Amino acid sequence: MESPAPATEAVPTKLVLEHVSKSFQTSSLHVQALDDVTLRIAEGEFVCLVGPSGCGKSTLLNLIAGLDRPDGGTVQADGQPISGPGPHRLMMFQEAALFPWLTVLGNVLFGLKLVNGLSSAERREKAEYFLELVGLKRFMHSNVHELSGGMRQRVALARSLAPNPGVLLMDEPFGALDALTREQLYGDIQRIWSQHRKTIVFVTHNVREAVCLGDRVILFSPNPGRIREEFSIPLPRPRDINSVDLARYSTEITRVLKGYVQSEVAG
Amino acid sequence: MIARWAVASLFFACLIGLWQLAVNAHIWSPLLLPSPSNVFIYLWSSLEDGTMLEATLVTVRRLLIGYGMGILIGLPLGLLTASFRWSQDTIGVLALGLQTLPSVCWVPLALLWFGQTEAAMLFVVVMGTLWSLIIATDTGVRTIPPIYSRAARSMGSSGFHTWTHVILPAALPFLLSGMKQGWAFAWRSLMAAEIYVTILTGFGLGHLLHYGRELNAMDQVIGVMLVIVMIGLAVDKTLFAPVERFLHRRWGTGRQ
Fold first, then answer.
1. What is the pLDDT of residue A10?
2. CATH says A12-88+171-266 is which class?
3. Which residue among B153, B169, B251 sits closest to A85, beta carbon to beta carbon?
4. Distance from CA of B228 to the nearest CA of A (A)
5. Residues forming CATH 3.40.50.300 domain(s) in chain A
């Protein structure tokens, strides 16, 4: 029996991270990638994690994906501790991690085949639907190397969306693309997000990108990786990355970010 | 396409022409250098009396069994050495060392262990194939970008599924070149074995070559060599080349 949610908490919490820490030992140094990080992300929320490289943003994504375990603290999804990777929380990587031995369609089907209880006709239908959604249905029989960088990331997006994950984890997915392609994808991702209402955790070091996409922008600082500040972005959607309002937010956040970096250097 | 055929035909016609010219010049005794027509006559007669076909079947059968065993053992061992440190330090080092050993070196050992038997033949072929296949598989698996496994894991793939659906297909270009190399090594080792080991369970092409030398029948020696080359070409063109073309098309590698 599910009791009706109280009015004050209309949106349930999807992800809860409490006092999470994680460190790595490389051959030459000890890196405290995350130190006592606590974060709540609501269902359907679009959260952007911003910070200089090495601040543990990607580590945090890996923990949520279940690809890594925290040294301390807990990571929960839907109230359950995360025990491993799975099709409920899918990760989209920096470079298109598409499989070159499969066609575009084969790549999208790969994740769907790992979801139980789908007939092959249903899988095919879903794959085609999501390829249509990213505007690449007519390339479904193409080989991966025949696509441009932007198209590849669109396929990767379709592949991540197709198994219907509750959470989409994006690790600088547009980092390697040119500015024009990136702007197109900002539009696409906002459109798809507003249609499908996934919970998205988006890692980037591009403040403007974070402001353009996120409901919330969370600022990380490195060594050890910690959350420094949080910003709500109440701008209406769809947002244009070149708008003046957006620039106002990103200027402010960049100023705060620079403050940290400088105080780190000074201290 | 027709132009390519024409060029190739012309090239080989020229080679045979040069050969005939060399014969006509009488620089070497006809015992040492038979004319193309003599070799052709030998090939024709050996086809008619069935010796060539029989020898070919015996050799190809040994080759396929030995090569197949080499792949069946080498592939899993290569996957093993790529996956665990301990197997890399043991089997991996062993394979690396034995790979450098010319396969003809296995012949004396095979003779002592197995005597004049079919098993001796297969042993030499397997030893000739196995080690390079292990090395090729190992290299192939190690060269795979780790992002593929991570992406697959994030989608819920693990264990055996990751091996069969990600690691093996990703390593396919390397596996194929390893298998091609293994095939060449298998041929080499089998010919060495057949020339040195005489067994009564079947006369292969190597034996035919060997007896050609003993009987001073150079038309036979050159004829058998031609057959060996033809089989090698046929296998490459019918078995390996189509797979290679497919891989190039998929991966977008190589030239058209």
1. 66
2. alpha beta
3. B153
4. 34
5. 12-88+171-266
| Helix, strand, coil percentages, rounded to 5, for chain A | 40, 25, 35
Comparing CB atoms, the residue among B148, B155, B250 nearest residue A90 is B155
User: Who among A87, A95, A143 is closest to B155 (CB)?
Assistant: A87
Task: Return the bridge partners of A86, or none.
Answer: A89
What was the pLDDT predicted at A180? 87
* Predicted complex ipTM: 0.83
- Can you tell me the distance from the alpha carbon of A13 to that of A76, in angstroms, rounded to the nearest whole number? 10
User: pLDDT 10s per residue in chain B (256 long)?
Assistant: 788 999 999 999 999 999 999 998 888 888 888 999 999 999 999 999 999 999 999 999 999 999 999 999 999 999 999 988 899 899 999 999 998 888 888 888 988 998 888 898 999 999 999 999 999 999 999 999 989 999 999 898 988 999 999 999 999 998 998 899 889 999 988 988 888 877 667 789 998 998 888 888 899 999 999 999 999 899 989 999 999 999 999 988 875 4
Mutate to test the interface with A, among B143, B147, B148, B155 (most CBs of A within 10 A): B155
Rounded Cα distance, A178 and A149, in Å = 9
Domain segments of chain B as ranges: 53-218
**B132 CB-side CA count, 13 A:** 22
CATH of region B53-218? 1.10.3720.10
Distance in angstroms (rounded) separating the CA atoms of residues B36 and A101: 47
Distance CA A256, CA A228 (A): 10
Closest Cβ–Cβ partner in B151, B161, B165 for A97? B151
Distance CA A229, CA A218 (A): 6
**Chain B: residue whose CA lies nearest to A66:** B154
A116 → chain B, closest CA residue:
B156
Return all residues near A86 (Cβ < 8 A) that are at least 6 apart.
A66, B156
* Chain-chain contact of B172 with A101 (C-beta, under 8 angstroms): yes
Between CA A259 and CA A248 the distance in angstroms is: 17
Task: Assess contact for B190 and B62: CB atoms under 8 A.
Answer: yes
Question: What are the Cα distances from residue B213, in Å, to A151, B36, B117, B255?
Answer: 63, 18, 23, 43
Q: By percentage, how much of chain A surpasses pLDDT 70? A: 94
Interface contact B170-A101, CB threshold 8 A: yes
- pLDDT at residue B200 in the model: 67
Task: List beta partners, residue A80.
Answer: A77
Helices B118-143 + B51-83 axis angle, to 10: 40
d(CA A209, CA A239): 10
Dihedral sign (CA B167, B169, B170, B173): positive
Q: At what angle do helices B168-196 and B118-143 cross, to 10 degrees?
A: 150
